[in-house]
Structures are given as C-alpha cells and as structure tokens.
C-alpha cells in the first residue's frame, strides 16, 4: 500500500511538476470555543496530473470538506495547499475566485442549478463568467449536453428534469470550460447504473488528458474501477492511499 506521500512527494517548499494538487498539514475546524469541531486533522496528500483520485470513507469523515478546500471554496485554518502550481493559501480572495473560475470545474452534490435558466443556459454559466459571448457559450453548452446524453433536453428548465438528468446537467456545466482540475462530490449518487457508468467514463476521460486531473468523492462502489488511486479518510485523517486494480473491483 502506498503512503499518502507516495511517488517521492515534494517538500512543502517545492511542488514536483507531476503534482497537480499538494496538501500539507491541512487543518479545518467549524464553530468556535466549546462548540468547535475539527473536521480535517492535518491532511497530507498529493494528486497527480493524468489521474483520477477517489476520496472514500465514512460519512462525516471530512471528504466534502477536503474537496471544498482543494477547490478554493472553503478557507482553511492552517497548512499549505498548492493547486495547479499556485498556492491557494497565499492568494487574495478575488484572485482565488478568478483562478477557480478559469482553471477548475465542480460537480456539487446538490447540483446548484439556477431554476429560471434552461439546461443549456445553466451549462453555459462558467463560460459567460469568463467573458464568452452568449451565443457561443450557449452553443457550447448544448454540445456538452449532447455528450452527457441530454441533447433533447437543452431547453428544459431544471424543474422539468429528473434528479438524474439534473445531475448530468451539473456534470456538463463542470466540464464546459475544459478545466485542468475537476472536482466531483458524489457525481453518480442520483444516477442509475448505466447512466452512472456513462458519466464516470466521461469524467475519467477528462482526467487522463495530460495536464489535467480529477478528484471524486464517492460512496458508489460500482464506479471504483474508474479510479487510478483511492484515498481513504477516517475521522479527519487520511489512513491510506493505494492504487486501484481493475480486476479487484470488477
């Protein structure tokens, strides 16, 4: 079994070129005083370009919190966090927001679709934020919806889509800006077996392009074989990181 700092991980002062995400001593708590709860208790982890890393473990173990910190959505208490060659812990909030919008994609567990926008418009949002013209952005949104099997639902509002269809819209939105880092929180939770497999195939293909990587939080053992490595979190700590062998998960 590999350790969390396998493959000759770099020191906290340097990041090896093959490392897309480097986490050192990451601590995150919620609440203050006697109500404070430490969710992440000194996380060390490397994620490499060209791989799909699965984050697994018990509910409440800190998986979504770690994913949110890596995505730059959540401030940390202490530690170092380098993403795509840049230090998120040293970035000003505005710079971090711009960095995140241009170089990362997100699939949230709750979808976070805007109810007044069509599926194509929802997918186009990251492009519109970046300054892409509306017509081009929506056209690219429709193309991405085709890729996730929703080419006939591009003009539907979220309320007219099933939970699984909404999840696929969320995946399309995360992929539309061609992100270097894709982070997904339970991307197959609302999908049946065939659609879950299709979405994971798409997500895996994104991660295996040089210069990109994918981190997926999941409880779905049906999709474990899509991962390259698996990191297990228990009680706010990584207790193991190991390669995934397809024959062992088939």
Distance between the termini: 19 Å
Strand order of the largest sheet: 6-7-8-3-9-10
| Series of secondary-structure elements, N-terminal to C-terminal | EEEHEEHEHHHEHEEEH
Helix content: 25-40%
Q: Strand count, sense and closure of the main sheet?
A: 6 strands, mixed
Number of strands: 10
Taking Cα atoms only, what radius of gyration do you get, to the nearest Å?
18 Å
Task: Based on the coordinates given, report the CATH architecture.
Answer: 3-Layer(aba) Sandwich
What does this structure look like?
This protein has helices at residues 63-70, 93-103, 119-130, 134-147, 163-175, 193-207, 246-249, and strands spanning 19-30, 37-48, 52-57, 78-83, 86-87, 104-107, 181-185, 213-217, 229-234, 237-243. It is globular and about 50 Å long. The strands form two sheets. The chain has a six-stranded mixed β-sheet with strand order 6-7-8-3-9-10, sandwiched between helices. Strands 2-1-4-5 form a four-stranded antiparallel β-sheet, covered by helices on one side. 31% of the residues lie in helices and 26% in strands. The model is unreliable at 1-13 (pLDDT under 50). With 250 residues, the protein is an alpha/beta fold. It has one domain (19-249): P-loop containing nucleotide triphosphate hydrolases (Rossmann fold).
Topology readout:
Layout: E1 19-30, E2 37-48, E3 52-57, H1 63-70, E4 78-83, E5 86-87, H2 93-103, E6 104-107, H3 119-130, H4 134-147, H5 163-175, E7 181-185, H6 193-207, E8 213-217, E9 229-234, E10 237-243, H7 246-249
Parallel strand pairs: 3-8, 3-9, 6-7, 7-8
Antiparallel strand pairs: 1-2, 1-4, 4-5, 9-10
